[in-house]
Specification:
The protein is mostly helical. It has three helices and no strands.
Length: 79
């Protein structure tokens, strides 16, 4: 009876661990594809962003995006 209980706990832990591994792998894979999509289709995504933001904020949004490009670009170059 004791060995059956231990086997059940080991099986339960193995299933829980494998589920977590699959979830982590799915997150990593989706993050990579999302990053690639953003890099490849940047102009269309910016157009979509500007279509959602009111026109009175377009100049401010342009400055924020330009500053983000500079900051992130410098961070990546520093790495």
């Amino acid at each position: 009876m004791h060995s059956g209980y231990v086997a059940r706990i080991v099986a339960s832990n193995a299933i829980e661990f494998s589920t977590r591994v699959v979830v982590i792998f799915a997150y990593i894979l989706s993050s990579v594809f999302l990053a690639l999509y953003i890099m490849i289709d940047r102009d269309r995504l910016l157009g979509g962003l500007f279509s959602v933001v009111p026109k009175s904020y377009h100049v401010r949004l342009s400055r924020v995006i330009l500053n983000l490009e500079t900051i992130v670009g410098a961070y990546i170059a520093g790495r």
